[in-house]
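Data availability (excerpt). The following record was deposited with the supplementary files.
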Amino acid sequence: MAKDKKFLHLFEYYMAKYPARGIQSGFQQNDVFKFNDNFKSDEVYKSIPTNVKEIIDDFIDTGLHLRVRGISPEGDKLTLSVDHGGGRYVGTVDVPCHLGEPVDFGINLPSTCDAQKRKDDVNITPKEVEQDEENLSNKTDKGDGKLTETELTLEKESYVADLYLPE
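Predicted structure:
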């Protein structure tokens, strides 16, 4: 029964969010925004101040997702931010809604941007720590003012804390 309730909650969330988009094609908070291909030829874009155009160009040049952070009460303007991932949204700019459209990822998370992907196939393999007697990093002062060798290996027994578990 509990599984059914969780499913219904997810299903209701999905139905509340996505059918409205198909009918109204509107924006919701936290949607990924994509500018139209010819948005720079739009009359409204041409009337935007130059400094705002520069910010928009900088946002696009990052190659990262642009997220809708706010919607005006009239529904004609959006506040966009650059999504750096992990809940970090940087910068804001207000743009008219009709300059772009929401990117539909369905119920999935947005894909990773090319700007955040590693270009090379670097595989860093760990190396054993060398026990060098002359290296000061391998010496420890145990409070008596003398440097002694640091034990770099763990004992073979496992350390398990005694926990109080109620019965």
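Summary of structural features: Residues 27-107 form one domain.
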